[in-house]
Amino acid sequence: MPMSETINTTCPYCGVGCGLLVEQDGDGGWLIQGDPDHPSNQGRLCSKGTALNETLDLDGRLLSPLVDGIQVDWDQAIERVAKRFRQVIDEHGPDAVAFYVSGQLLTEDYYVANKLMKGFIGSGNIDTNSRLCMSSSVAGHKRAFGSDTVPGCYEDFEQAELIVLTGSNTAWCHPVLYRRIVKAKENNPALKVVVIDPRETASCEIADLHLPLKPGSDSLLFNGLLSFLDSHDAKAHDFVATHTEGLEEALKLARWYAPTARAAAEQCGLPLDDLLTLFHWFLQKKRVVTLYSQGINQTSSGTDKVNSIINCHLYSGRIGQPGMGPFSITGQPNAMGGREVGALSNQLACHMDIENRDHRSLLGRFWRSDSVTEKPGLKAVDLYRAVESGEIKALWVMATNPAVSMPDANQVRRALEKCEFLVVSDCMAETDTARYADVLLPAQGWGEKSGTVTSSERTISRQHGFLRSAGEAKPDWWILSQVAQRMGYQGFDYGAVAQIFSEYAELSGFENGGRRDFDISALAGLDAESYDRLKPIQWPVVNGQAKGTPRLFSDGRFYTPSGRAQFVAVTPKPPGNTPSETYPLALNTGRVRDQWHTMTRTGKSPRLSGHDNEPFAEIHPQDADVSHVVEGGLVRVSSRWGDVVVRARLSERQQLGQIFVPMHWNDQFASNATVDCLVNPALDPISGQPEFKHTPVAIEAYKPTWYGFLLTREKVMLEDATYWAKAKRDGLWHFELAGESAAEDWSALARNLLSSASDTSQWAEMMDSAGGQYRGVSVNDGQLQSCLFIGPDHDLPKRDWLVQLFAKKHLSRQERLRLLAGAPMNAQEDAGKTVCACFGVGLNTLVSAIEDQGLQSAQAIGEKLKAGTNCGSCLSEINRLIKERQAQTA
Ligand code: SF4
After folding, report:
1. pLDDT for the residue 840
2. CA-CA-CA-CA torsion for 726, 732, 738, 740, nearest 10 degrees?
3. 502: burial class by Cβ within 10 Å (0-12, 13-18, 19+)?
4. Rounded average pLDDT over 208-231
5. Banded model confidence at residue 4, pLDDT cuts 50, 70, 90
6. Distance between CA atoms of residues 120 and 578, nearest Å
7. Which of 137, 156, 408, 737 has its Cβ near the most Cβ atoms within 10 Å?
């Protein structure tokens, strides 16, 4: 790429779909900034997007195809995959094979995978990991609208008078959209924001009202709202009469389960006045957006919850107009693209239905295939059960890590182990899933691949490659097309990605005539150059409307057979498994601010690892007390399905009886912290989406005989540790450690592990064998090389100051003298745990700025320290710190 060229692309993380501008920085690296012209983010990025340039190295990449662990060329790898799939299909039929794909794929990759499985192999057995995050929204949309349609757009948040965030920690999971809401509130102080969430999350920072409802009681709340609206004559009479059906039954059940606000409040465990505040705001404010995410979807009655929300919007006519509507926000960068191409096992391409004979016939004619599947395939959880039972004999996993991300992940690991033929295409060589693969295929990573993605608001954006492919990595669409051709199928001779997009756009309009919502036929036939220059555009994109469509349903026309939206009668249901004497607590899982999925990319960034460098469980202090779990100690969290050992964090922001463990850590980053190994496989019966938000668990203090930490420039492994968690920091690896039997000679172990024969490092050590203490540091040529601190309990020096010293080219005499103490003489030199990842501002620095320098606002802190002035992801923490300090001094 020429030095001066600027590439437009999009962020590979969440469903906000932020646009990026990428340039070479003149120093061998890349400058990655928010694209001011992209409609999703208007130049903003969150901490993850800002740190993308730290994730581009080749460390850990899969560089060439491997068959049975042996490097082969592409031809051999393709031959092996095609031959084995063909053999299984010939012997056992098409349903004996399956694909498990991902919202990380680009739309064109997704399209080809789905075309191959559903159109030519003739099985519905392709499911996507979007099943785990979005399928209840899809099912809810289809029941209400007749189509999987997100009616609104991000601008609606700026035009709303009331925004209800339910089951969504938007501040951390969709930070740029959250900043848009913050800005909207600054511009319009009358805008009300309500957060409905059992936990007090970072999103509560701007909430006018937080409703910490009982886990799983969401549809009681929205049934209560529907009853309340009805008893206050809030019906949009004309809209309901002309454009909807099924109100009577929905109202009957709403009134039965939650006849009054008081009844709803009692069942949701909420103060009546608080619930009434929400109900009255909903009643009074015309422009209402209800944004929902995994807290609604990832439950065993997620589809009903989605419909209970949509019911309220239909009843009051709050849909299809500026500033209003139900709004499902997607987790992954291209979850929407996957839904559009039909990568869920119960869908066909371009929002067509497997059960619909006309749709199947249409696809067969368009693809010139007489093998289009006639029945849905297995949904993710059932798919892995079928792999374990041997019903599915050949499985191809693309761009995802089910050994970490599926519920009951131990079952998935057993299935992968047993699978007769497992192909994994990924950009990383070592993942918890890849270790089971018979064939590993190197796929291009972000920055190398090229295609399109669709954001939560239906905006299709280009993703452009700007890096050379790593090793022999290839685009996923190319790999799939080669296998398809080798299996003897016609229609896969694609020469370029633009060709695939054009075919896909043409299919969306094929015999459509306005009967299907997904139609981008105006983009069919784009040549390579026009495709390359394609600007972000919201679907539908049909001729005569070439600018795209910000909102649907403005005309009250829906895609159901009657053309009317459907109310759905909702019977509230408790979580699939309820707490018991043995497992008395309810486990909730989710994201942390600075990590993404299974950390294959974000785990490479020192900046992002500074915020949370270790897996943890957030526990209410009273629950911790009962089990003798202490702040900073280790805790074993167990369920019927498995267990993890993580660091305990006590917090009253967690409700009594509930705990939270993040979803990201896995065997590559910790000894035993894959939380999905203990998540129950309870499923929504309609969508098949698993219940990640509620698993009964027990906690107990995990008491090793020693604790420690290791900071080292080399990636090493301390075999004596039964507990370990590792994080990349700036110029070093940071290991947290604990073990059940102490080394006989810590000094010998440290020197063996951390020094080579030619090493000229100088060691300083401190030992107290009787007290179980060891501290050793090595310095080479004035630079800190490694620190190993061991003690009998977890009360060891804070690591932050030592971590900071690794960045110094030459330690001062004072610093060297304080190394074994693990803390500077002057406490202010220790910046503390990273809060602002963009500018590396630590907790201690912020506390000092608030207490000693009297900075009492995030703005004042930003002006002085720059913290919070770039992506803004840390502003909620800064504001909370200010409030806490003010409360302490009041
Ligand atoms: S909000 Fe952050 S993670 Fe999501 S797309 Fe934007 S920059 Fe990426």
Report:
1. 83
2. 100
3. buried
4. 97
5. low
6. 43
7. 137
Q: Which atom of ligand 1 is nearest to the CA of 873?
A: 2
Q: What does pTM read for this prediction?
A: 0.95
142 phi and psi angles, rounded to 5 deg = -65, -40
pLDDT greater at residue 208 or residue 826: 208
pLDDT (0 to 100) of residue 331: 83
Q: What are phi and psi of 209, to 5 degrees?
A: -155, 130
As a whole number of angstroms, the distance between CA 295 and CA 298 comes to 6
Least confident segment among 3-7, 256-260, 328-332? 3-7
Residue 389 has pLDDT above 70, yes or no: yes
Please state at what angle helix 476-486 crosses helix 74-92, rounded to 10 degrees: 60
462 CA to centre of ligand 1 in angstroms? 15
C-alpha distances in angstroms, 574 versus 81, 271, 641, 860? 44, 20, 20, 46
CA-wise closest residue to 228 among 260, 268, 267, 252: 260
For residue 757, is pLDDT > 70? no
Distance of alpha carbon 291 from the chain centroid: 16
Q: Which residues of 17-38 are buried (b: 16+ CB within 10 A; e: fewer)?
A: bbbbbbbbeeeeebebbbbeeb
Dmax over CA atoms of the chain, in Å, equals 84
From the CA of 10, how far away is ligand 1's center (Å)?
Answer: 9
What distance in Å separates the CA atoms of residue 518 and residue 350, rounded to the nearest whole number?
A: 6
Q: Whose CA is nearest to atom 2 of ligand 1?
A: 46
> In ligand 1, which atom is closest to the CA atom of 49?
7
- 95 CB contacts (<8 Å, ≥6 apart)? 123, 125, 377, 391, 392
The residues, ordered by sequence, that sit 6+ positions from 605 with a Cβ below 8 Å of its Cβ are 51, 54, 55, 728
pLDDT digits (tens, 9 = 90+) for 223-234: 999 999 999 999
Distance (Å, whole) CA 662 – CA 674? 9
Dist CA 67 CA 81 (whole Å): 9
- Roughly how many angstroms between the first and final C-alpha of the chain, as a whole number? 58
Cα 92 to ligand 1 centre (Å): 44
User: Which residues line the pocket of ligand 1, CB cutoff 6 A?
Assistant: 11, 13-14, 16-18, 41, 45-46, 48-49, 174-176
CA angle 720, 721, 726 (to 5 degrees): 135
Average pLDDT over every residue of 70-81: 98
How far is it, in rounded angstroms, from Cα 504 to Cα 520? 9
pLDDT tens for each residue of 145-162: 999 999 999 999 999 999
Q: What is the pLDDT of residue 756?
A: 72
The average confidence (pLDDT) of the chain is 95
* Contact predicate 168/193, CB 8 Å: no
pLDDT beyond 80 at 443: yes
Instruction: Find out whether 652 and 664 touch, Cβ atoms under 8 Å.
Output: no
**Distance between CA atoms of residues 3 and 684, nearest Å:** 51
Q: Is the predicted pLDDT of residue 3 greater than 50, yes or no? A: no
Distance 18 CA to ligand 1 centre (A): 6
Query: What is the CB neighbour count within 10 angstroms for residue 727?
Result: 21
Nearest CA to ligand 1 atom 6: 18
C-alpha dihedral over 491, 496, 498, 504, to 10 degrees?
Answer: 20
Closest atom of ligand 1 relative to the 20 alpha carbon: 7
Yes or no: say if 352 and 516 are a contact pair by the CB < 8 Å rule.
Answer: yes
Q: Report how far ligand 1's centroid is from the alpha carbon of 534 (Å).
A: 21
Rounded-to-integer distance, Cα 355 and Cα 303, Å: 19
Angstrom distance (rounded) from CA 822 to CA 102: 44
Q: Is the pLDDT at 828 greater than 80, yes or no?
A: no
Question: For the residues 751-758, what does the mean pLDDT come to?
Answer: 81
Classify residue 820 by burial, with Cβ atoms within 10 Å: 0-12, 13-18, 19+: middle
